[in-house]
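Hey team,

Filing this mostly as a record. A colleague (T.K.) asked me to run one chain through the structure pipeline before their review meeting, and I want the input and output archived in the tracker in case anyone asks later how it was produced. No errors, nothing strange. Just documentation.

Input sequence:
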Amino acid sequence: MRNCSKPINFHLLPIIFLFNILLLDGVVTQTQIANTTSPVNVGVVLDLESLVGKIGLSCINMALSDFYAIYPHYKTRVVLNTKDSKEDVVQAAAAALDLIRNVQVQAIIGPRSSMQANFVINMGNKSQVPIISFSATSPSLASLQSSYFFLAAHSASLQVKAISSIVQAFGWREVVPIYVDNLFGESIIPYLTDALQEINTNVPYLSVIPSSVTNDQIDKELYKLKTMQTRVFIVHMTISLGSKVLARAKQIGMMSEGFVWIMTDTMTIWLRSTEASTIDSFQGILGVRSYVPQSKKLENFKVQWKRQFQQDNPDTTNAELNVFGLWAYDATFALAMAIEKAGTANLRYNKTNISNSDATDLETLGISQNGPQLIQELSNTRFRGLSGDFHFVKGQLQYSVFEIVNVNGNGERIVGFWTSKNELVQKLDLTNTNTNSTSKPKLGPIIWPGDTTLVPRGWEIATNGKKLKIGVPVKNGFPEFVDVEWDPISKKAISIKGYCLDVFNAVMDNMPYGVPYEYSPFATSEGEPAGSYNDLTDQVYYGNYDAVVGDISIVANRSLFVEFTLPYTESGVTMVVPIRDNRQKNAWVFLKPLTWDLWVTSACFFVFIGFVVWLLEHRINEDFRGPPAYQVGTSLWFSLSTMVFAHRERVVSNLARFVVIIWCFVVLILTQSYTASLTSLLTVEQLQPITDINDLWKRKESVGYLNGSFVEGILLDRLKFDKSQLKIYNSPQELHELFTKGSANGGISAALDEMPYIKLFLAKYCGKYTTVEPTFKTDGFGFVFPKGSPLVPDVSRAILNVTQSDKMQQIQNSWFKNEIACPGLDPSVSSHSLSLESFWGLFLIAGVASISALIIFAAVFLYEQRHALLQSRSETSMWRRVRIMSRIFDQKDLTSHTFKKSEARDANSSCSVHSVGVVGSCPNTNCPPSPSTSSMSNQTGPSDFVFYVEHGRIIEHGDLSPNGSASPEIIPSPERSPIELANYRHGP
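Output structure:
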């Protein structure tokens, strides 16, 4: 029989033996690791049937698996004890109580919702067990101030800055939040409204949706919102409730063009897990959610998680990994790391010593000894997780970036980012650290509800058929501005018209959209004013009127409660006073243009200039010679005739011409100024004696103001007038009557009012009143709207368009065309007389010119006559020398060119004149003796003396020869004729 068995290969035995040894060593090593690690119980409280619970639990398990795969040598092993809270607050509390009391867990991950967490946090704080939640984002949880609560997510309050930046970027002035009626929904509202108020955005209404709500209840609330003018809504609720609300909003037409919907992160995070049938209701919506930086590690994890989740939850088909799952992963990773660092030395609980058999389960809870050390390690844990930098600061994750998404089609599209440093940006650049950027916020192209790219303005006129109720003041005077005609029978207004209403109508016609409105007089049933203008503006604040149109002044105290548009009239409050006509009532009015000192100075200079010209012209100009009286009259005549430039005397001296030119310039300025001042006095009406409001206050005179005007506050508060000094008027006629009476007879001396009223009053009473200082700055008339009204910017722009067009002039002509503006009423014109202070410079120039001319003339004259002074006897007194020089000055200057022609012509007949110093007839001529010479010879006595000038010598009378003839030395030569100088008696 044949043996078929194969022989054994003994060469393989060593290899088989070595493999068995290595396998046995691995088993022994794993057994040793299991024996050296310490299990640490950790509780998990989640809504296991909810999508967030399923995603969270799968991420928690994967986190522990990955953690211990990375750190297999760690001595602790987290053992999960999972409890289902079943979306119930009580069930969550019961689960946490069981985990703490019976399992003695070292920490609890969860619960899911903020309402569940509120009670669990208190329980953890009592037993010193850390509570770590990755989905309870309500900001109210931070108010518990529990050191044992860690929020491994971004608080819902952190996103409000991003939302307010979006609202501000598009200029929306009103926003309505829509939120769920629970702790989670309510807790964000204070933070949201504060953020919106910082950008001057109003929140006119808060829409609250119950967590258990029917479609009818939702429709009722949405219809209420639709009738309002606000079209910007911020939705803050769970994705299930939010989807329901948005579906109903689309059903009633609130997802059409003009509407704006913004979702908070609790809805935006779950967009990718929303069914296609539901996403159709989200078209055009903007959403905000936390930004997760992309990484290779994150991409690999998504693939692993998707495979693992489908294995664990085969019935769930629409699940997508979101930031809640990443936070759950990172929170578990951080907890495992903290447990390892805290160690296992104090994993026990200390039981409370309560002997009372009636003690509750909460009172008998033990206290974890490892809790204090564990929360310290959690606070110090920091690493780069799947969601980004993971680090607790005061028990919360810190944020830096939110992404803005726009829902279109079957998905979402990122249109921008919000960072705490640069706010809204289209592209994220985390390396940019510039915090002072002033560039305009930019987002990518957005498709809004209604499939439009046109940015909604954020509000619309209400669609409930309600018109804007416009309040109109009722007044008894100045109907040109507002005129309300009242029917006492029907007790309704028959007509409402006026300048202010025509302007408002024109502005509304200029609006880019239609605004239905109707006027409502602010009047009693009898047609009388129902209150002051302040009362009328208060009605807008109280909501009784949607706006107020009329002659409403823009003042600071009113702007505290209402909002004004840009003004449509000129501004200012000024004082009006009566004027009187003083023309032709004063016979001496011609003296008023100049003050007395200017009159005296002018007269003195006329005399002085005449004297100067006479001095400069006397020796060389026949017009300024002759008898003394004639010379005085000629000098004054010449000087005064320069006023009308009618002087006939010829001026031959260059110095005199220089003086006359300067003086004519001075006279020209004086006469022109005098003419202008006199014209003003004779043609411009003079103001009443009271032209200063301070004088009115000092004299206790009465001042008027328009009834109901804010001017009363100016008079009482700023100008400190007493209430008894103030008089009220309602119309221009009443104001005129008060002026006619005067302050002494129960009337007024002045009135303060706004410029539009003053101009109309002056036009009605042309020539009787005028305006004077002071003028108080105001902003004119404006239209009144509620605070934060979105109509204000558009109405203000429409006002600019109307006021800068011909339409405004047409409206003014239609109401004020019959009122003629008074000419010449310029309060800046002054009737004060001209004083010397205004002309002293001119007189100084004339005086300096005249004195300079005199100095030059005297210097030249003394130089030419120096021989008369040098050859006089030494004993001759100074006074006698002055008399000698005056005699020489009184004679003609025959060397002047003005006398050369006459000297040549009259040489033969004038010898007696030129030789008047010789006694008797001239021996060399046929000239008879001069009568003056004969008389002088006969009158000469011992006490008399006569001076002669001959060949440069001065000869006294005693040097004459005894026969009365001149000695040969002093007989005049043909070249020079002697000139008689003087003949005076010596002694007293």
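Quick notes for T.K.: Residues 654-683 form the longest helix (30 residues). The chain has 32 helices and 35 strands.
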